[in-house]
Each structure stands twice: as structure tokens, then as C-alpha cells.
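dude i think i finally got it to work??
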Amino acid sequence: MRMKRSTFLVSSFFAAWCLCATAQTALPPGHPSSKELMAAEGVMTSANIARGAADVCHIDAAKVARFKSVVRTSYPDAPDFDGEWKLGLAQAQPTVDRFDKLKTSDPAAYRKQISEACPALDHGMDEVTQPQ
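look at this
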């Protein structure tokens, strides 16, 4: 039962993170094809995850850089990778702020969320960045 709850919380954390990216998406003009749009969305969502990994979970900057490199090769159809990455990083700010606020307003809840979400995020980044 505890494992199911933990899995649910981690999934909820990632879903909320991705929803923040989706809800705040405002692509610059010039993104005509759906293939390009999907790639741009993937880049922005990945940047959101990277921002959480760096600023909330304090995952090593080198691992985050490797993740960005893998994302770059995974989305070759992204029309403006660097612009979309920057936008995704910026879109994560409300989530980072929410965690910062939770850290001071409810330290126990903060520790609980971090202890459940961050190891999964770290492991997921390891899986993505491992050579095949």
C-alpha cells in the first residue's frame, strides 16, 4: 500500500510539473507543423523537468547538462531548441516558488514531497542519460 501511495505521489508530482509546462505554453510565431509543435512541447516539458531537478532536487549540474544534451538529440524537429528550452525553464518558476514557499511554511510536507519525488526524478534522469 505504501509503495502504491508513493508511486501515486511521484506520478502526481511529475504530472503537475508537466501540466505547468503545458498550461503556460506560448510558442513564438513560426511553428507551422504539428511535428515541430510536438518537438517544441517536448523540449519545453523537458526543460521544466530539468529546472525542477536543478532547483528543487539539487541534482548535479553535470547530470542536468547530460539530460539537456539527450533532449537536444531526441527532438531534432524542434524549430528553436534553445528558445524553447529557455521558455520551459522560465515556465517552471511558479513550481520552484511553490516548493520554496512550502519549505518554510510546512517543512514536514516539503521534506515528504522531496523525499518521494526527487529520488524518482534522479533515477529517471539516470535512465535517460545512460548510453544504450
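Residues 1-12 have pLDDT under 50 and may be disordered.
im so relieved honestly
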